[in-house]
Amino acid sequence: MGDIALLEIQLAPSPPVPVPGATDWNEHRGGPATVLHWLETQLGLGADEPPYAHRVEEYATALALVPDATFAASFRADRWATAETLLRRREELRLAGWDEADRPALPPLVRDLARAARAGGRRVADEADRLQRVLEALERGQALPPHRCVLWDSLDRWPALWRRVLGRLAIGPATAPVPLARASTSLGALQGGLLGGHPVPVRSDGSLRWLQSRSVHAACEAVAAALASDPASAPDTVICCERSEVALGLDGALARAGLPTMGASLRTLDHPALQVLPIVLRLCWEPVDPSLLLDFLTLPVGPIPRRAAARLAGALAEQPGLGSRAWDEAFAGLTSPEEDPDGTLGAGLGAWLGVERARWGDPVPAALVGERCRRVARWAAGRAAGLEGNEGARPGDMALAAALRLAAGQAAVLADITLAGGPALTEPQLARLLEAALAQAAIVAPHAAAWGGFRLVRSLAEITAPCARMIWIGLGTEDRAPGGWTAQEIEQLRAAGIDLDEGSAALASLRDAERRGLSRARESLLGIAIPGDEEQRPHPLWLQVKASLEAGGEKHPVALEDFLVAGTGGLEPWRFPTARTPIEPVPAGRAIWTVPASLLRDRDRTSATDLEMRLACPLKWVLTYAASLRPSAIAQLPDDFRLRGTFCHDVLAAVLGEGGTPPDPEAAVRAITEHSRLRLPRDAAPLAQPARLETQLALLQELQAAGRTLVRALRAGGYAIVGFEQEIGGRVGPRDLAGRVDCLARRPDGAEAVIDFKYAGQKHRDRLEGGRAVQLATYAAARQQATGAFPAVAYLVLSQGVLYTPDGSPLHGTGVAQVVTGPGIGEVWSGFAAAVEAAGRWLATGEIPVRPLQDAAEWPDGAQLVLDPPDGRGRPPDIQPPCEYCDFGVLCGRLELR
User: Fold this and answer.
1) CB neighbourhood size of 375 (10 A)
2) Which of 339, 457, 672, 692 has the smallest number of CB atoms closer than 10 Å to its CB?
């Protein structure tokens, strides 16, 4: 075109897609955004568009000045959503020619919008303002460079304000679109029928293929394989894929095949950089939700240094709550003079985590929200600047910097609109504002667009240049948002000279653009239906293609997977090479593992857990102690069962752990109640959330009952408390014995009692009755070595407030405890110690049994002390005791690998 600019413009939105090797200097093809950008550039009118959230809040301020409007009730119920909807309607009206003047003939809603415009407030810039500035510049005499504008849609389809602007351009006639495929092919006949408006019966041939896949992954891999058979055609191939996640999958398949990638991207709010602001704001209420706090600490991109975040996350996994003992210990260690000599880390942690919070259910001060937002904005902007200024930046750093810049902008916008909305915000109000501020998502593009690669479009309307081959993957489409105007309102508006399109003109323009796009394929079209299409509306243009195929006798697509299994080669010109791979069977579970005996070493220290594991599952013992395998370092909050048990234990230890004569039961209950209410939000915060009120009440009742039972039993037996979590020592054969007793008590005559806390379960009573309380027996054996006599023993079941003691080793004063018929604890220990030693030959042989996978008939004598036998019908239990809390189920074969 030389010095004359060419504008090929259609009403349907169509972002320009570069065509490799095309000489289109000074040529501009696309939709309204393309021509508006060209006009503003030529007239020197470029300006930054204000953030969407600013525009909505600005308009909400104007709408609030009309308190008696027709939309007043909706505005009071949901200020943001109402302002957002009315802003969209205002923009439609202004493009249609409305000057925001009030006239009696206008619908009531429009008259109220006119009143809002007249009442004052700042003017909200929109597309109509940009067009108006273009018209004003042209009226002042500014001239456009030589150009020719080709409009694919007639002027009467364009909104009124656009018609005024386009009328100032040098508009030339558009040539009628023609099929580019040969008329002798099915594709050429189909294109002619679509452009001419009459269906033509066609059948699949080398130019037109219709496939259906049962898997998105299979479809992407098949397309990549087909394209790999002719890589030279990449620059002349267009791939139409409306669903971003499918395009990402196809790009991954192209990369694995060594083909140039398309640069498929996904707009998502799930980017780690965009998660900081929502989480920080959710942490403005207390009791702090530890799951949110853990998310904040473990973000891949976050403001807390990784060393500190990992330590604090570990504390949450131990005691899930901000301010727990574990948290305070970790915090103190991190901010100690040895680890934080200049105090920088402590100051940073305090700024992010040490804020005054509102109680759940109360509004949060807008000033606090604004401060939190500005802090996130400063952090994100600073982190982005550091990445951008790093000469040794890694691949992906610039994409991360862009996401951080976006996060900084969102936080700054939210700070502004929050402070303009009142002194305090409820949680729903803040959530609505946050949703608006996060309206713009981050762009994630795992693969860059390669030069000379395939052209990716989301819509056929975006195909503005010819191509040899076209692949249309995913034959459904999203529903268009319905218009908000009634037929009566549209009639009133048109009568008042406002030519509002109810949507038919825009839709007709889109369909025409899609037909033109499909007609630009010269050689072949491949359409592939994929899972998920049935959940969308069938694309109207594909329905026309399908109707032509059905009229030609082709009722159903080729099933891709069935075709590939048949191995017949290809559907010309598309070839799908396949290869057969034998399936490796999953390794079967083994009842015995064999390792070189030289790798096994006994330990010189032991514990109750160690001894029980030796007998119950030697493999678990080897993996835990000999191999030192540990779960992943990813911090996880404890489940409810563990959390309740740990919290109950900690409360009882805090209230009664100083030792001495047990207090009066009711005094103990009062102390337990006060301490529980104080510590629950800190030590077991998941249970302290507002939605868990019923759980909180039940837990308090359990604690009160357990504390009352324990104190009454000790007082009845004349026991004084020696301590909680009392360390014990001793010897088991050649090994040192170590452990901790939950509660150790002693009578004036020196007789002791060992009480083990369990949260729930009838099984503990059964263990006493069957002589299987091996953990209690180990603790008792340690005390026997220290005092010369076996102590009395008992289980305190916290959730039931019940104390079980065996008649063979009963607590004194058993009127409170439930006495269970069972052997003495010394007898249990003798049998357990003998069984452990007798069954320990595997340490020397290297044959390591997996007891839960073995037939019970193969268990050594004494294994029934730690393993549950089959029931009366010979069926093994669903899960054995050593397997309840085991991280090696996949390794041993008990669990399937998923």
Assistant:
1) 19
2) 339
